[in-house]
# Entry
Amino acid sequence: MEKSIPHKQTPPEPKNHLIIHQQKGDKIMDKKELAKMIDHTLLKPEATYEQIVKLCKEALEYGFASVCINPCYVNAAYQLLKGSDVKVCTVVGFPLGAAASETKAFEAVQAVNRGACEIDMVINVGYLKSGNYDYVEEDIKDLVHKINGRAIVKVIIETCLLNDKEKIIACKLAEKAGANFVKTSTGFNMAGATSEDVALMYDTVSPNLKVKASGGIRTYEDAIRMINAGASRIGASASVKIINKK
# Structure
């Protein structure tokens, strides 16, 4: 069966990367602005209810964009954050991305019904590397269609497992399928986000698609480096340390 390769797209015009480190002439971002770009994350399998409560309290205190948690805690987080600006984000097909498309779509719909308004799904990395691009696109598109605009969809491409050509193809497939973000990593594989990958993803997609950097972002300097490379959102478990520059 002949492999379907996405049509080559004309690269978008370069966008002005956000410069927020403090030097003469640079934009300075305060703690509140930076917090609004962070998904405060706890995805460890051993995470307890008490830790989720603490995560939500920190998100409310610092004004993070969302809490990113495992699906079993979605409704608990929704109840804890109800009435605030902090969103509930969860993961689908996580961390391998190898579940059937129907399973991913069902998982996403259930999460949205329980209060999630952001879904971070993992692509089928093996199918991408096999050249089965039609499947990868439909895998994303089916989930996007099933949640019917009720949540933002971020597509995790797991950059550490891909070469640059595969990263570009994955980003284009995600955009074609109707996603809102492309995301670097699960944080559960051999490596996380790099500024080089963020810049490549940012330059590949149109202005309609944003980039989330996640995996191994532990310091203020790490976060700034990712934002300067083009990230609009940061996924981190060390969010409080990042904000407090510790």
The first strand starts at residue 38 and ends at 42. The radius of gyration is 17 Å. Residues 32-243 form a domain with the TIM Barrel fold (CATH 3.20.20.70). The chain is about 40% helix and 15% strand.
